[in-house]
């Protein structure tokens, strides 16, 4: 693993490096700023999805499970 992995060039390698550093307890070496941005982005995305589902009155757990496993595009044809 390279000492520095560029967040903008190789996202997967960046994730792998930071996960390894965190698991090894080397917290001072992680890319904290970009990790914070990614976590914030994930939280906003999840909140948007929750709000969207609430507006649609979506409550079918089987549909949600299929959506999670197969992705949104395959699920559209089975919309409730």
From TrEMBL:
It comes from the Bacteria. Gene3D superfamilies: Uncharcterised protein PF01724. Residues 46-65 are annotated as: Disordered. This is Uncharacterized protein DUF29. It comes from Thiocapsa rosea.
């Amino acid at each position: 693993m390279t000492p520095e992995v560029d967040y903008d060039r190789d996202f997967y390698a960046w994730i792998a490096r930071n996960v390894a550093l965190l698991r090894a307890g080397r917290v001072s070496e992680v890319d904290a700023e970009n990790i914070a941005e990614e976590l914030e982005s994930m939280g906003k995305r999840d909140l948007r999805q929750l709000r969207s589902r609430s507006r649609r009155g979506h409550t079918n757990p089987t549909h949600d499970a299929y959506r999670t496993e197969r992705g949104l595009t395959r699920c559209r044809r089975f919309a409730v």
